[in-house]
């Protein structure tokens, strides 16, 4: 086998730990090169648990990675992804790509100009149970969603729709 892809992770919160690190850590076709998160103390604990080297900065992480998965807050996506693309790194960022359409368009344009891959990750899109459900449903004429985790519905409707319920729409489409 040739050189393995060097993967980095930015943001080590709940989604990274629950949905991404188990998959990224188990694959053999790449190596988890480094991780970075704004809260250093927590990041060091998580890096130790997952046996991932901790990078002292976003620049240090970018310098040693071919591609980076970004799992930070939506409000920080533009700044983090812009930084990584300018460093010449391919990026997969959790949905949504950015907080504003103009920022999302600028990131897409930057990735194209730099000839880099920029992917928006929907962590449920390729999950086996979601794929099976979508296969059974076929074309949806309407969609109804019941949410039973009341603690996940924020005061900000825009945040709730973009950061949570968007998965349902993505699955239905």
Automatic annotation (TrEMBL):
Name used for this protein in its record: Virulence factor MviM
Domain of life: Bacteria
PANTHER family: CONSERVED EXPRESSED OXIDOREDUCTASE (EUROFUNG), OXIDOREDUCTASE YCEM-RELATED
Transmembrane regions listed in the UniProt entry: none
Organism: Klebsiella variicola
Molecular function as annotated in GO: nucleotide binding
Every YceM-like C-terminal domain range: 128-173
Domain Gfo/Idh/MocA-like oxidoreductase N-terminal: 5-122
Matching InterPro entries: Gfo/Idh/MocA-like_OxRdtase_N (IPR000683), Gfo/Idh/MocA_oxidoreduct (IPR051317), NAD(P)-bd_dom_sf (IPR036291), YceM-like_C (IPR048477)
Lineage: Bacteria, Pseudomonadati, Pseudomonadota, Gammaproteobacteria, Enterobacterales
């Amino acid at each position: 086998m040739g050189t393995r892809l060097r993967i980095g992770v930015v943001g080590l919160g709940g989604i990274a730990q629950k949905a991404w690190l188990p998959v990224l850590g188990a694959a053999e076709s790449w190596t988890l090169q480094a991780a970075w998160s704004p809260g250093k103390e927590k990041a060091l604990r998580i890096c130790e648990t997952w046996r991932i080297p901790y990078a002292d900065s976003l620049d240090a992480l970018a310098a040693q990675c071919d591609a980076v998965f970004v799992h930070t807050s939506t409000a920080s996506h533009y700044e983090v992804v812009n930084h990584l693309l300018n460093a010449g790194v391919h990026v997969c960022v959790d949905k949504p790509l950015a907080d504003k359409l103009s920022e999302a368009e600028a990131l897409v344009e930057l990735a194209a100009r730099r000839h880099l891959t920029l992917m928006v990750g929907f962590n449920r899109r390729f999950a086996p149970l979601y794929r099976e459900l979508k296969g059974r449903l076929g074309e949806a004429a309407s969609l109804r969603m019941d949410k039973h985790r009341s603690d996940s519905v924020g005061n900000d409707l825009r945040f709730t729709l973009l950061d949570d319920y968007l998965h349902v729409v993505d699955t239905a489409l």
